[in-house]
Design goal:
16% of the residues lie in helices and 45% in strands. By secondary structure, it is α+β, with helices and mostly antiparallel strands. Strands 8-9-10-11-12-13-14-17 form an eight-stranded antiparallel beta barrel. The chain has a six-stranded mixed beta sheet with strand order 1-2-4-3-5-6, with helices on both faces.
Length: 399
Amino acid sequence: MNKSLTFFLFCCMFNVCQAQDSKLILQPNTRLPLVVVVSAEIQPNQMLQSVEQLPEPWRSQHHFLLLFGENLDSNFIALVLNTLLNRDEGHNFDKQRIYLLAQNIDAKLEAYLQSRSLFADAHFQRKESVSGQPFLETLLTKWSKSRLWEIDVTNIEQNHIKYTVKYRKLGLGFLLGHKTQKVLEQDTAYLPNRINTLGILLNYRLSRHLQLMTRISGSFKVPNQKKLQSSIFDQIDPNEGGEQTILAELKLHVFVQNSFQLNYLFHTSGKLQAYTGAGLSAIFFASTKTKIEETIDFSNFSGGIDGLGFDSANDLPLLSRFFFDPYFSAGARFEMSKHSALLFQMDYHFANQKGKVNETFIDQHSFKLYPNLGVQWTFSKTSSQYQYLNASKRKKPVP
């Protein structure tokens, strides 16, 4: 038999007689489907043989829970399954793919199990039915196409919550981003071809796999008056006097991006967690890049921008625009400690950034991949226990 981890959930811990018992065959792999076999057998010899005789690919890709005994009841089944699924700290069980094989159980128990929405698929076998390894392999092949939606699992949990303790739902962090444009030489007023952004992010976990994230980031640059004046004075020869030609370049930009996105987390345990998401950004930018060549009279020149024909930097011809930009993102989160983690995210944006100067639009193609690197802190930790099967609330059997 497969030498994977095998242990017993003894029913005596629930103060129940040995007329009903359970056995779990747990594979070393993580997040595999769980096959629940319920049988009226006193000993699970036939069930064990069926599992042992499965080909290795089928056996190693499933966990098996055997529930057996001549007096099986819904309370015992619910208690064992609830305990097992709530101990799923490593997410060994794919709760979207839990399957049921019931053998020779009474009509009352069959009606109870038929009414449970936990199972992605189920089969009820009678004494006269064909059993053994080929039959189980056929079932596993059929079940491989069946699964619950994530929202179904979430509804099962939320509708049968037993108790809740604190867990990590809220996160706060900082992001450094890098943005690249393809700048054309003839564009005199546009964002520079590269800018670095700094932002703050806030995220909130809606469920084990869904997360909301919002962030605001920005970048700005204004002309350095002292550096500009120093550059101008360096071009002037006081001994020459008279009219002299001065060259200067003025650059200014303001970039603000407010984003809101929904993420799906693929791995919800371990230090490394990957996710993907989609979102919408509201972007505002204003910028200018102006080259100036002036011939000035040294005797009347003050050395400032006003000497070049501008009263201040506010008089420069600004290109500006506000627009919405949808995007996709993919990222990973690596935990450094219990409450801190490194964050890397790559965004793919769809919109090109047009700008307007003197009622004329400039259409500029942007490099659409924007990398972001940051650090994140999470506050409080949550874990919940659920009654995945509720034996006290009976529903009508599914026809």
